[in-house]
Amino acid sequence: MFHDSQFGPQQGGASVSLWLADSLQQAPAASPQDWRTRLREWADEVDLVPDLGQRIGSLTWFRGLATCFGLCATALYLSPAFEAIPGVPGPVLSSGHYDEVRSQMITPLALGADSGRHMGPTDAVQPLRETPERPQIELSAQVGSSDTLPRALSRAGVSSGDVATVMAMVGGDIDAGVKPGTRLDIILGRRASRDRPRPLDKLAFRARLDLDMEVTRAGGVLSVRRIPIRVDNTPLRIQGVVGDSIYRSARAAGAPPKAVQAFLRVIAGQVDLGGIGAGDRYDIVTEYRRAETGDVEVGELLYAGLKRARGKSIDMLKWTKDGRTEWFEASGVGERRGVLSAPVSGRLSSSFGMRRHPILGYTRMHAGIDFAARYGSPIYAVTDGVVSYAGRHGGHGNYVRIEHGGGLATGYAHMSRIAAASGQRVRRGQVIGYVGSTGLSTGPHLHYELYRRGQVVNPLSVKFTTVAQLAGGELAAFRARLAQYQGLRVGLHDNFAQKAATAPAALGK
After folding, report:
1. In which band, very low, low, confident or very high, does the pLDDT at 402 lie, cut at 50, 70 and 90?
2. What is the arithmetic mean of pLDDT over 175-189?
3. What is the CATH number of domain 231-337+466-509?
4. Is 227 in contact with 214 (CB distance < 8 Å)?
5. DSSP-based three-state secondary structure for 278
6. Is domain 137-228 classified as CATH 3.10.450.350?
7. Which positions fall inside the M23ase beta-sheet core domain (predicted)?
C-alpha cells in the first residue's frame, strides 16, 4: 500500500516514522494543543484497514489483521442473545363471550371456512328429514385391456340385473368381446329407495367398427338401438424404397407396425434380411378397414413383395388351401412343410450307432442323436404332426413322440418339462418341451430319435419335404387375386358415397 505525502510517494510505515522524527526535531517543546493536532494528522496518515490481500506478512498487514479481529470480537460481544421473546397468551372466552363473538361473525367464518371451528346450530336451524338425491348421474367409463363389458358396467355402478339384461340384448353383436379402450357413456336414473341401486337409463358404446349401440329405458323397459356405420374394406397398399433400414423406411412411409413385422417374417423365410440393401423396393398389402367416422382397424398381411436391385425378387401371397392358410409364391408353390429342422438350439454331442453307454458301462446301440444344450432350452417339433405319447418313458425320462404321417415319427427324450399333450396337433417349430436330464442321463441334453414304420433310423440320413402346389382353377383364382393386389393404387382409398367428416390423412406414397 502506498501513500502520497509531503515527502513523496513512499511506503505508509516509513512515511509515518520520518514524519514523526522530523516533527520532534523541528518542535521539541510543542504545546498540548499542537500535540493533539499532530496526533490527529498522524492518525489521518496511518491506514488502519489495509488490504489484507497485499504485502502479506508485513507490519501493515498484521496491523490490518488485528483491526479485523478486533472488529469481529466487538460485534460478537455486542450481539443480542438468541432467546425466545415472551408473549402474552390470548384470553379464554367464556360461553357468553363466545356467543357474543359468534353473533358478530360473517357466515363463512361461522361455518368454519377460515377458523376451522364449526359452530352449533341455533333454534332457526332445523334438520332435514332426508337428503335430496340427484335425479341422474352421468358417467363415462372405459373397457380395460383385459376387461369385459359386464365387469366394466358393474364397476360403473350398473346393477347386476341391468347388466344381465344388456348382455342378453347385445351379446350376439359382440361375440368376440368389446375392443379394449372402448368408451361407455352411461346415465343412471333416480332410484326408488335408498336400499336399491340406480336403474340404467342409457348406455351408448361402439360395439364394432361398423356398429354403434344405444340402450335406453322407456316405460321402465330397456330397449336397444343398433346404428350401422359404413366401413371401407379396401386393402391398404404401401410401396417404397429401402434406405438404411427396411423397417424404418416402411414405417416412414406410413405402414402400420403390425404389417411391417409380418412382412419381415415372410421375407425372412425367403431371403436373408441382411442382404436387403438400399435401393431395393418393398411392396406391402394389408387388410385395412376404415369407418366413415375415421376409425381404422389394421388386419392381417395379405401380400409381401420385394423387388431387389441384385438378386431374386419375391412375390408372396397369403392363400387358403384345404383349410390351411399359408404363403404361396407367385408361381403357386407354397411353403415347404415337413422339412426336418434342428429340434433344439445346441451342438451335436453324440451320433447314431453303437457306443459305450456312459452310465450302464457296456456297448450298445444308440438309437438316436444327442444335442448338448443348456438346461431349460426350448425343444421344437421338427415338422407338423400329432403327439402320440407325452409322459414318463423309462430311461428316456420325460418323453414326447410325434407321428408325422407316412410312417414317420420322431421322439424327444430327457426333457425337464413337457409342453405338449397326447393327441395334440403341433406345427413345425412349436415348443413341445424343455431340455433336462431326466431318465438315464449324465447331464442336460436332448436325445432325438426318428422312426420309419416303427423302426429307428439315423435322423441325419432322412430329409423329407412336402410342398403345397396350386393347379387348375385354384391357380387361376390365385393369380387373379395376386394381380388384384398388384394393381391397387398406393395409399388410402375413399370409396364412401359421401366423404367421411373425419377422414384420416393418407399414409404416404
Report:
1. very high
2. 86
3. 3.10.450.350
4. yes
5. coil
6. yes
7. 364-459
